[in-house]
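Structure ticket #2291
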Amino acid sequence: MDTSRNTPSNFIRNIIDEDLASGKHKGIVTRFPPEPNGYLHIGHAKSICLNFGLAEDYQGTCHLRFDDTNPEKEDEEYINSIMEDVHWLGFDWGDHLYFASDYFDKLYEFAVELIKQGKAYVCQLSADEIREYRGTLTKPGKDSPYRDRSIEENLDLFERMRSGEFEEGSHVLRAKIDMASPNVVMRDPTLYRIRKIAHHRTGDKWCIYPMYDFTHCLSDALENITHSICTMEFENNRPLYEWILDQVYPEPHPRQIEFARLNLGYTMMSKRMLLQLVNEGIVESWDDPRMPTLSGLRRRGYTPAAIRDFCERIGVAKANSLVDMAFLEHCLREDLNANAPRTMAVLRPLKVVIENYPEDQIEELDAVNNPQDPEPDTRKIPFGREIYIEQEDFMEDPPKKFFRLAPGREVRLRSAYFITCTDVIKDEAGNVIEVRATYDPNTKGGSAPDGRKVRATLHWVSATNSLPAEVRLYDSLFTVEEPSIDALAEQLNPNSLEVLTNARVEENLAQAVPGDKFQFERQGYFCVDKDSTKGNLVFNRTVALRDTWARTNK
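Resolution: structure written out below.
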């Protein structure tokens, strides 16, 4: 098999290489197994890229399997969103879409087989009592009083659990392993519990549902998964994974391999916490652009290429670490810088009247769409007597190192002319509401024939030939690098969203549709939001420019 690739090696690839070289496997089969109880987040992207990426590199197969064993928290909405996210990242499972619920009948048979072997029993301890009997890390557990029931009695009770005779919480099926095991996971873990809730796929057929640990390993085996790759929190569960397979499933078995999950600063990777943000109205929805969900990042303007690049560059390791959000943004900027067309937008407009420019004249100037293109094309932008610039680009009494527009100061307008401020107009409160200026008609295109230089270049839009727009400026949702669910309210960033309703953008954006991405020159990268309509443009700031003024004044 040709496994040549450009991707750097890591310990998981080394294991796969050894398994293939030894003849243990002729090919590899991986899986991405989300629980459909929430939307996927950036942490899941690492697992998606790893599992599907390995399958691609080794000419193998990657399954998409929904571990849908908890009907109380699962929903078709989550299933649809997960499939959309995986496709958006650029991966496809082909014919290999599965659900753990597809195996409920077989899983029940495996449970019965364990009972017949004397390795599982029905327990009537309450959940609190089971925890009490389990012991601690330093104290061994003690046997349940129901542990020595006969095989016949356990088979009868388990069948009665299935028929709905017992109430929720009154009976569970537990594995009979070792209550003194140093690994607490192995102290007679629960395999089945009663839940009298309809399932999104099986309806009311079942009122008992298998636990995740029992389901996962057997689902892997039934699908002929060769390498079951999961995050480090499942390392302690690996002995149970292997124990269950050893009892009821023939060799060869899938091999569980753990890697460090993605932890990203100033956000959270818990679906339970993210659900709380949604339910409490702290964010608009799962796809709020402040959320670390893939749908939220997509709406904000992140690209699949940037996320895949990020996941590859952070690498695969066993040690947990916290990745700086700035690194994700760096990967995003690299992609958008190469691919996002340039345009000009004024977020907080200040009118400038160019008094020596003909009143009724509108001329079209050429502006480069993306200077990163080998052969960049251009667009036409209208220029006239009245334009808008950013309020922050003008100061009536500027400090020493302020090089932008000020009384008597000459600056360059991007792709247009040099202008000089001649006067200001103020309102009754003394606020500058308009700037008067003159332009040098010999500086068309932004350069002077006499070679004189200016210290600043400003972006602008025509006052009469531009479009109104709403611009949403997003910042991190939390003020601390590692937020905690216990202090959620105190750690929220009150400035995570600022909405500007009076922005102006180039009229070329009239045909922009949701998902379109642009670099607003000197401002950052922006994406058309799904709330946008033809007559009401809405833009989300995806990410700011790394060094705005260095780029502008170069």
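Closing remark: Confidence is low (pLDDT under 50) at residues 1-5, 547-554.
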